[in-house]
Design a protein that fits this description.
Number of domains: 2
Helix content: over 70%
Strand content: 5-15%
Radius of gyration: 24 Å
Low-confidence stretches: none
CATH topology of the largest domain: Multidrug efflux transporter AcrB transmembrane fold
Number of helices: 10
Strand order of the largest sheet: 2-3-1-4
Structural class: alpha+beta
Largest sheet: 4 strands, antiparallel
CATH class of the largest domain: Mainly Alpha
Mean pLDDT: 84
Distance between the termini: 29 Å
Shape: elongated
Length: 306
């Protein structure tokens, strides 16, 4: 039996150090919102040959004086390559700015036969509404999880189990948030998708451990273990299952991450990379954070009752 509760301070310090690193990188890299959240323009150029996306982004930024992000997309039906330029900002793209950008790109990539095929504008208020809706979805998932855990484990103190599950989920959400910041990934719909996915995986593991605690508490009449030893026993019994499940998910997501990186598919990489860290964090928080915190809650309640 592993003494998870006795090592809780070590686990808490490790998490705090990770959070401090993330906070430092917030000041270094800042928080970058993608066009979906803060508005801007999207231009799509069809082309032939190969184009350096970084050079294209530099050209767009120099021409327009705005932050630009470029990526290559390929049509699965026609194999036509497209250069997608995302221009973030609170204003749309005027006709004169579009002409200047068009001329600058065609001058730099004269051999690639660039042709503008699509232009779209995301208004700032739409981006803010999308961001609010995404945050609301995360908060709503937190509330529903607390209610579910509260009801399911009401025999062992459901409210405390729900709150400790929430603490573990907040830990995982912060890890995903810091991954976006550290790797300079603009916050877009991938952040919402990755966060909600990690919440699902993490709470599943947490419920398994609390279910084991409930079973052991029912059978604790003979052994009469103290609450900390009982939780240590429950986590140890669930350890193999939790590690195997998360290892399988981690390997799958890591393969997607490597594939998207090798092929330059930034849209998939922006989801897969935070997921790899989120899966590790979900396993860690379930085993090392939620259980010890719950024991601390129960012990404090026993002291107050005494």
């Amino acid at each position: 039996m592993i003494h998870f509760y006795e090592k809780r301070k070590l686990f808490f310090v490790c998490s705090l150090l990770i959070f401090l690193v993330g906070i430092v990188f917030i000041f270094i890299n800042g928080i970058q919102l993608d066009i979906e959240f803060k508005g801007g323009s999207i231009l799509k150029y069809q082309f032939t040959g190969d184009i350096d996306v970084e050079a294209a982004a530099d050209t767009a930024e120099e021409t327009l004086g705005r932050s630009a992000n470029c990526q290559i997309s390929t049509s699965t039906d026609t194999d036509v390559k497209s250069l997608v330029i995302n221009l973030a900002g609170n204003e749309g793209l005027s006709s004169q700015e579009q002409e200047n950008l068009d001329a600058a790109l065609k001058a730099q990539f004269s051999d690639n036969q660039l042709e503008l095929s699509e232009t779209s504008i995301v208004e700032p208020f739409i981006g803010k509404q999308f961001l609010r809706n995404g945050i609301f979805a995360i908060i709503l998932s937190f509330m529903l999880i607390i209610l579910y855990v509260w009801y399911s484990f009401r025999k062992i103190g459901g409210l405390s189990a729900g709150i400790m599950s929430l603490a573990a989920l907040l830990h995982d959400c912060l890890i995903v948030f810091f991954v976006f910041v550290i790797f300079k990934i603009p916050f877009d719909e991938n952040y919402i998708a990755a966060t909600l996915t990690i919440i699902g995986f993490s709470v599943n593991d947490t419920i398994v451990i609390f279910d084991r605690i409930r079973e052991n508490m029912a059978d604790n009449r003979k052994e009469k273990l103290p609450i900390d030893q009982l939780v240590n026993k429950s986590i140890s019994q669930s350890l193999t299952r939790s590690i195997n499940t998360n290892a399988a998910v981690f390997i799958s997501v890591l393969i997607v991450c490597i594939f998207s990186w090798l092929n330059g598919i930034s849209s998939i990489l922006a989801f897969a990379l935070p997921m790899t860290f989120g899966v590790i964090s979900g396993c860690y928080s379930t085993i090392c954070i939620a259980g010890p915190l719950w024991v601390m809650w129960k012990k404090r309640k026993e002291v107050k009752t005494a």
